[in-house]
Amino acid sequence: MRNFIGMDRDIRQVIASIEKRNRNYRLFWAAFLFLTGLSLSAYPLLYRIEAAVFWFFCGVVFMLTALLLLAYALRVFPFRQAGITGLLDHGREQVVWIYPYIMQTMPFGIKLFDSTRLYFHLLNGENQQLYCRTREANELMEELRMYFPRACFGYSQEKEFMYEYDPAMLLRNTSDKE
Fold this sequence. Notes:
Layout: H1 11-46, H2 52-74, H3 84-90, E1 95-105, E2 113-122, E3 127-132, H4 134-147, E4 152-153, H5 157-165
Parallel strand pairs: 1-4
Antiparallel strand pairs: 1-2, 2-3
């Protein structure tokens, strides 16, 4: 069975493309929110309506939300982080635990969609997330085992307790098998 990563592709390129897709998605929504806020703010100026102050402030709230989303997408202050690609390059020894979190939206038992996040928990108690598709997450989990041989994989309450107590407890010897 051939997976989406393939033999010739580097996992860094796959994760970088997923991060780029996530960034572009956030930039699209930031632009949409900003334009919506701009139109809401300008609406009272174009048409004489009552409650102009309400529409103006609604527009300002939309534009400020868009600016925060833009800062998050571009990883500028206060959202400055290296990203998962940076962990692959420089922080391999910092990652102690990796697991996927799959959330399925199922109103009345009908599956609409699912969203998946890969959590990368670090030795210093922080974590980073990678939003991806469920199929990508499952295949990335297998490939990441080679890049992070000392990290634990998969979720359990026992691992969560150990991580909260001391993240270093989750580091494995390279000879151990899970």
